[in-house]
Amino acid sequence: MPKTKKKRLHDDTEEEVFTVEKVLNKRIGSNGRGEYLLKWMNYPESESTWEPEDNLDCPDLIEAYETKHSKRQGEGKTKVTSPVTASKKVSV
């Protein structure tokens, strides 16, 4: 089910509704709170925007992003060896 975000227009009489297609990235904003980069349905990726986590109503899309992102981080981890082990390696 598509998730939407309502945006009040300048005159406060109408609201424009945007639908989140997917979450592209995450960062910590200048206020120290989480923000997500959102790809909007029917808009090019160049129109994606950073939105505060507190303003979003798309928990399933956020969860999907977090799950995918945490799996990628786990795959990219390398084993750290102790200095003793590392010093025993010899190039031939």
Radius of gyration: 20 Å
The first-level CATH class name:
Mainly Beta
Q: If helices are DSSP runs of H or I spanning 4 or more residues, what is the number of helices?
A: 2
Identify the strand order in the major beta sheet: 1-2-3-4
The low-confidence runs, each spanning 5 or more residues with pLDDT under 50, are 78-92
The major pleated sheet works out as: 4 strands, antiparallel
Judging by the overall fold, what is the CATH architecture?
Beta Barrel
Gross geometry: globular
Short description:
The protein is of the alpha+beta class and 92 residues long. The chain has helices at 59-76, 83-87, and strands at residues 3-8, 15-28, 34-40, 49-52.
Description:
- The structure is a single chain.
- The protein has helices at residues 59-76, 83-87; strands at residues 3-8, 15-28, 34-40, 49-52.
- By secondary structure, it is of the alpha+beta class.
- It has a single domain (3-70), classed as Beta Barrel (OB fold (Dihydrolipoamide Acetyltransferase, E2P)), CATH 2.40.50.
- It has a four-stranded antiparallel sheet with strand order 1-2-3-4, with helices on one face.
- The N and C termini lie far apart (58 Å).
Essential attributes:
92 residues, alpha+beta, OB fold (Dihydrolipoamide Acetyltransferase, E2P), 4-stranded antiparallel β-sheet, 2 helices
Describe how the helices and strands are arranged.
Elements: E1 3-8, E2 15-28, E3 34-40, E4 49-52, H1 59-76, H2 83-87
Antiparallel strand pairs: 1-2, 2-3, 3-4
